[in-house]
């Protein structure tokens, strides 16, 4: 698809953009490189001041409403969730503005030298290839630590959220960051390769699909350039017999339906102990059936449209194929046609066997897969039987079971009695085909720096 704003609620194309020419891309890279040479000399005090100003702008009531409405317009996120996303972006800005000087402070290490230490220095231009599903948050969680470390950023955002991409560039510029320290490149997916191959670009990070991540990593690998990948997930949500069932059900609904189910860390596979499977299913389907579908600009809407028609069509095909292979539909299973947009009903599927294609797939939409298991051992085996390894949520009040789950679930994050979520204070990332490297926390800011050893005698 071209670079355009297409309202997923009405399917109306509101604005189209032309991709940058190769000559303009070269100009912008030259501007970024020149900006880096001076920006790397700026103080933490200045960088923190600019990032805190960006947080102030994001928290301004009028501005936050404007940014939230832009997200909802371009990709259909319910407006209340969009407002929450803007607030979270301010949080990550404040976190790194305050913590980066500590995270990047030189560390003295006693050796046979008179003095020896480790220091952290910026790399240069870092390319961020970002997705549409959290169009502000994904960018700010990259930009805040990268800019505090002294790097400069270039953003290739998803083609369906160009106005969000341009707005983020403007926020950082108005906050005081020097010109060209953060630039949005409106380019096609095919143009990413020339950017990655450019010697001025030192590293790249991508959040998105597995094929996109594999492509970027291959290109960067041939150039021996550092990458961080945060890819797909099919997170398990395990509920054992001792769980607080009411709390687990309430969280399960939110964990599956947040952002209309379009989240890499959404709970997608609900693995329930046989002893409580029936009451869980009854309560879970009842709660999902009461969710308000509709115009995402309405504060009352809980489930909006899927971001694009192709996503809707793919999800619909996944469900129909699953049904053809024996899956049972307990709720939904079809489009919602009260509005003309990309709407799909909250859906619950059970009786999913291992030979069903959906067993190993990621469902990027409001579709929950429910599995019954005999015990914790079977739950862990099923949870780990996936090509993905991003997050996992498990529910039990038994301390021994909690410890066992933490040790044996193959995931980048394990949440006990809570929903998997990102937090600026904690590292975020996955294993297996969910990617590698970490964002956020101290680990995230260390991904794109030169960790330099210094030895003096």
From TrEMBL:
Keywords: NADP, Oxidoreductase. Residues 3-454 form the Aldehyde dehydrogenase domain. GO terms for molecular function: aldehyde dehydrogenase [NAD(P)+] activity; succinate-semialdehyde dehydrogenase (NAD+) activity. SUPFAM superfamilies: ALDH-like. It holds the Pfam family Aldedh. Belongs to the aldehyde dehydrogenase family. This is Aldehyde dehydrogenase (NAD) family protein. It comes from Acaryochloris marina (strain MBIC 11017).
């Amino acid at each position: 698809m071209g670079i355009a704003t297409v309202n997923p609620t009405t399917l109306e194309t509101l604005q189209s953009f032309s991709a940058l020419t190769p000559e303009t891309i070269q100009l912008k890279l030259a501007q970024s490189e020149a900006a880096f040479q001076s920006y790397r000399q700026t103080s933490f005090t200045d960088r923190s001041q600019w990032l805190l100003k960006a947080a102030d702008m994001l928290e301004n009531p009028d501005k936050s409403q404007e940014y939230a409405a832009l997200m909802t317009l371009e990709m259909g996120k319910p407006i209340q969730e969009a407002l929450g996303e803007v607030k979270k972006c301010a949080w990550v800005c404040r976190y790194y503005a305050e913590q980066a000087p500590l995270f990047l402070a030189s560390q003295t290490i006693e050796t046979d030298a008179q003095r020896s230490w480790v220091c952290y220095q910026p790399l240069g231009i870092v390319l961020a290839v970002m997705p549409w599903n959290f169009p502000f948050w994904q960018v700010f969680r990259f930009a805040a630590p990268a800019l505090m470390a002294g790097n400069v950023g270039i953003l290739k955002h998803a083609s369906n959220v160009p106005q969000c991409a341009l707005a983020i560039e403007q926020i950082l510029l108005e906050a005081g960051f020097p010109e060209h320290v953060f630039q949005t490149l409106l380019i096609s997916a095919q143009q990413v390769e020339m950017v990655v191959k450019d010697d001025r670009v030192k590293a790249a990070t991508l959040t998105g699909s597995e094929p996109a991540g594999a492509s970027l990593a291959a290109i960067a690998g041939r150039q021996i350039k550092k990458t961080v990948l945060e890819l797909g997930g099919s997170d398990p949500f395990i509920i054992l017999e001792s769980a607080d069932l009411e709390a687990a059900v309430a969280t399960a609904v939110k964990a599956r339906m947040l952002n209309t189910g379009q989240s890499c860390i959404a709970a997608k596979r609900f693995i329930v102990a046989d002893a409580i499977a029936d009451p869980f299913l009854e309560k879970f389907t009842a709660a999902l059936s009461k969710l308000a579908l509709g115009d995402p600009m309405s504060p009352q809407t809980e489930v909006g449209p899927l971001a694009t028609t192709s996503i809707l069509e793919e999800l619909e095909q996944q469900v129909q194929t699953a049904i053809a292979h024996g899956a049972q539909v307990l709720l939904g299973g079809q489009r919602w046609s009260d509005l003309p947009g990309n709407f799909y009903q909250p859906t619950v599927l059970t009786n999913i066997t291992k030979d069903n294609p959906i067993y190993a797939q990621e469902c990027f939409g409001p579709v929950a897969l429910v599995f019954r298991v005999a015990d914790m051992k079977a739950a862990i085996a099923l949870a780990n039987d996936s090509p993905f390894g991003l997050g996992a949520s498990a529910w039990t009040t038994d301390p021994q079971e909690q410890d066992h789950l933490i040790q044996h679930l193959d995931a980048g994050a394990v949440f006990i009695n809570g929903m998997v979520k990102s937090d600026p204070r904690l590292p975020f990332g996955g294993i297996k085909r969910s990617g590698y490297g970490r964002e956020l926390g101290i680990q995230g800011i260390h991904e794109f720096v030169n960790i330099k050893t210094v030895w003096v005698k």
